[in-house]
Amino acid sequence: MSSPFQGLKVIDLSQIYNGPYATYLMALGGAEVIKIEPPGGEPLRKRGVVGGAALPFAMLNGGKASVVLDLKTEDGKAALIDLIRTADVIVENFAPGVMDRLGVGWELLHAVNPKLIYASSSGYGRDGPYAAFPAMDLTIQAMGGVMHTTGFADRPPVKAGPAMADFFAGIHLYGAIATALYHREHTGVARRVEVSMQDAVYASLSSSLGMYWSTKGESPARTGNRHGGLAESPYNVYPTSDGFIAIICVGEAHWRSLCGLMDQTALADDPRFSSLKARVDHMDEIDETVSAWTIRHSKAELFERMMAAKVPCAPVRTLDEVMHDPNMHARGSLVWQEHPDLGRIVVQQTPFRFEGVEPVGITPSRPLGSDTQAVLAKHGHV
pLDDT tens across 1-13, in order? Predict the structure, then answer.
């Protein structure tokens, strides 16, 4: 069977994480993705001079052709328009208004190719009072409530470790493009689609928002590693003899199994812990009891015993352990790649699986502009 996006042509003007992740998923879905960068390259490529910052570019831009165009020149704009004539999708995540100021905005490109889906992502959207605000992952985490809900009650707010606002937006952008393609297939109408980073993170606040509404508008304190809505217990990260382990008991069966593992079966019927509400009301005692047990054992021993008892848990793992995860490598979710500049690296395959469709092979990210002449000649621009 052919790949889902085979035959689809995508013009990728996006940069950093947000848009490039959406177009990377499209490339791994079989689309021809032509990445267009300004002279000197996009900002993420330039970060390669600092530490290990070259790896993210390689992770998000494999499977794409590399073309350099200066859209501030007439020839650069003409070359882009030639590419657009036969394209299905264009993706950009510039600040609102940049493409119009360059003279290659939605109206012009849609007139050149009425079948073109124009997809954009920005921090706050292009039509609200925040449209002109500059935005990055850090500022969206702050503005969007993520930072307020992350950390411990007695300490300042902290950002989430991963670039979640960027990647949430990238996933939503991919979904918006796929939806627009479906709509075009059934109606013949190609639309402009947009994803704001602020919009993309809101749903992730659901546990904290539940607490906010249940207390009639009282802003909940940060809960550290406890449940964001303080609605589950045990639910925390507990110390072990060699690190930490995350444990959550959803329902009575999990709690009773954990009590058995701790050799404290009587706790299951103790009035302080015999229901979810009671456990939540006494979560400090729960956490002290569980911690006193976990600290006496290693992560591996606890994980093995709790998996056998079907108690949800996981050791807190390092980046090295995650990068070498046996499950992800066995499933082909992570693959080793020989990169011409970086050597042997690990890159991620698409999380999407289609029955009967083999994953697309991931070619390494290309040197800046290495495909410019070949791509432009193919599309009639000399």
Answer: 789 999 999 999 9
Question: Residue 312 belongs to what domain range?
Answer: 235-316
The answer to whether residues 165 and 199 belong to one domain is yes
Q: What are the catalytic residues?
A: 227
The reported pTM is 0.92
Residue 268 and residue 239 share a domain: yes
> What are the tens digits of pLDDT across the range 152-175?
989 999 999 999 999 999 999 999
| Distance between CA atoms of residues 125 and 121, nearest Å | 7
